């Protein structure tokens, strides 16, 4: 049966260099217990590790596979002044994440905290820990994390998709030679920005207009600058960033100033709108911001930071996932045709797929799930446990930083048959592979998983359904291969050139 599925045209080969060999794992009964952390394998020269990290910064996902081949399924390392225990095996990751307490703690992002201390901002949902984090998380989850709440944003998301498709057609016919959408990655970034803004701010930023507003362009440019400078500043102690007067830190701060200003302006505008509505005796709308400002006790200070984080988390993640999705569908026309047939079997010609419609599109959901396995947005994620634990025979003290290597785990041949093969059918309920839930957790796990997960999934389902319904997507250069690179997130290393052919 497995061989039949592998021969099926929907099973797509994804040849990738540096594919990892099967890592032998000692049976649990033979693992030596109660070893001190200092005995854990891993590189010991801190200066050498700093150079290694800098040298491999754009291919960190592949470099971590090489480290696993060298040191095994768990090893210790450091980057600058930040020591880590790296976990590359699904069983260990599951054991680790299931031991999180009431207040799961992320690895501290020192440069983000340093900026907020400098400007007097709240740490927000991402950087808060303990009861403060729980309070914010509970408030936010009631509006955007519960499945029954997500459909309220479907119409506004679809409006943005309609504008995006119109823009695609215009760009294709005016500047793309009637075939391509120039700078596809950037255009999908604009779609994602506009889409999440309609949810968070209940307003449009103008990302999809023919001439983008100057403030919106500055905002997008500042996000790019922030991510570019983040790698360097993350390797230093917070006091070094200001004491040494580094230019990179100055650029980083200026970028954050612009980013935060967008949240400030839109939240303050919403406050004025609410006051005006109340003074006129009008009912308040059910938007996210209205709810946060009137239905919770979250302070504006916390809201500025939390909304900024949600906005950032909801742009690069969904836009890059959609670039990879279109790239893979163009490389595998048989799969694309199956997906088109599924969409058209659920919705009539000219009908816009709704949130309820995509519930009946199993292949569409599996395509997104497989893309997130092959191209996990975050190649690694961090945790800090609040208690001593024993993991794989090592005594690991409270406060140790863990790096959970998602990219490594999704390439594990013990878990995924032919892990480098793009195969959405592996996720079907009647599939031949029994997959551990923790083997692919692109949105994280437990209370600390991505707060915008439900929104991001719905955005991607709706836009993919419309794109497949509207266009046949082809590679401009058949057989062209685009490799991923690590730029904080896993992104295409080269431009993705695709043709968008109108469907009859």
From TrEMBL:
GO cellular component: mitochondrial inner membrane; mitochondrion
Pathway connected to this protein: Lipid metabolism; C21-steroid hormone metabolism
Subcellular localization: Mitochondrion inner membrane
Membrane topology designation: Peripheral membrane protein
Cofactor: heme
InterPro entries xref list: CYP11_CYP27_families, Cyt_P450, Cyt_P450_CS, Cyt_P450_E_grp-I, Cyt_P450_sf
Enzyme class: oxidoreductase
Binding locations of heme: 450
Protein name listed in UniProt: Cholesterol side-chain cleavage enzyme, mitochondrial
Protein species of origin: Branchiostoma floridae (Florida lancelet)
């Amino acid at each position: 049966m497995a061989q039949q599925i592998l021969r099926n045209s929907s099973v797509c080969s994804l040849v990738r260099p540096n594919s990892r060999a099967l890592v032998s794992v000692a049976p649990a009964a033979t693992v030596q217990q109660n070893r001190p952390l200092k005995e854990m394998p891993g590189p010991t020269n801190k200066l050498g590790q700093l150079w290694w990290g800098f040298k491999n910064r754009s291919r960190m996902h592949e470099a971590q596979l090489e480290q696993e081949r060298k040191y095994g399924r768990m090893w210790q390392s450091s980057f600058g002044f930040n020591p880590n225990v790296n976990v590359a095996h699904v069983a260990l990751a599951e054991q680790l994440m299931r031991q999180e307490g009431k207040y799961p703690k992320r690895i501290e992002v020192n440069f983000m905290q340093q900026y907020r201390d400098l400007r007097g901002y709240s740490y927000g949902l991402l950087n808060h820990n303990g009861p403060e984090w729980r309070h914010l998380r509970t408030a936010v989850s009631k509006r955007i994390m519960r499945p029954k709440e997500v459909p309220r944003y479907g119409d506004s998301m679809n409006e943005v998709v309609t504008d995006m498709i119109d823009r695609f057609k215009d760009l294709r016919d005016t500047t793309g030679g009637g075939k391509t959408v120039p700078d596809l990655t950037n255009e999908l970034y604009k779609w994602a920005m506009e889409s999440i803004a309609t949810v968070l701010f209940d307003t449009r930023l103008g990302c999809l207009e023919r001439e983008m507003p100057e403030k919106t362009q500055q905002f997008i440019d500042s996000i790019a600058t922030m991510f570019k400078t983040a790698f360097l500043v993350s390797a230093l102690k917070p006091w070094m960033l200001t004491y040494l007067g580094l230019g990179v830190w100055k650029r980083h701060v200026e970028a954050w100033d612009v980013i935060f200003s967008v949240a400030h302006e839109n939240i303050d505008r919403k406050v004025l709108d609410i006051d005006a509505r109340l003074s006129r005796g009008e009912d308040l709308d059910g938007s996210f911001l209205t709810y946060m400002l009137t239905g919770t006790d979250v302070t504006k200070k916390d809201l500025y930071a939390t909304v900024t984080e949600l906005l950032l988390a909801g742009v690069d993640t969904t836009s890059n996932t959609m670039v990879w999705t279109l790239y893979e569908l163009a490389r595998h026309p048989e799969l694309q045709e199956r997906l088109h047939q599924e969409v058209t079997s659920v919705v009539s010609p000219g009908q816009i797929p709704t949130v309820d419609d995509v519930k009946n599109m199993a292949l569409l959901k599996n395509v997104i799930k497989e893309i997130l396995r092959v191209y996990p947005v975050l190649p690694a994620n961090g945790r800090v446990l609040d208690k001593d634990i024993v993991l794989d025979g090592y005594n690991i003290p409270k406060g140790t930083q863990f790096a959970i290597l998602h990219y490594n785990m999704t390439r594990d041949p013990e878990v995924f048959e032919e892990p480098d093969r793009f195969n959405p059918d592996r996720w079907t309920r009647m599939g031949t592979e029994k997959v551990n839930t923790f083997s692919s957790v692109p949105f994280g796990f437990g209370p600390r998983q991505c707060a915008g997960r439900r929104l991001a999934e719905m955005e991607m389902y709706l836009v993919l359904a419309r794109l497949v319904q509207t266009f046949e997507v082809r590679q401009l250069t058949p057989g062209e291969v685009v490799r991923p690179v690590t730029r904080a997130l896993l992104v295409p290393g080269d431009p993705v050139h695709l043709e968008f052919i109108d469907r009859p």
